[in-house]
Amino acid sequence: MVWSAPMTAVANSVFTAAQFNTFVRDNLNETAPAKASAAGSHFVASGVNAIAERRTTGGADLDSGTTTSTSYGDLDNPAAPGPSVTVDTGPMAIVIVHGQMSNNGTGSARLSYTVSGVSSQAAADNQGAGIAASAGTLLMSSAVILHSGGTALTPGSNTFDMKYRVSSGTGTFQSRRIIVFPL
Question: Is the residue at 132 inside a domain?
Answer without folding.
Answer: yes
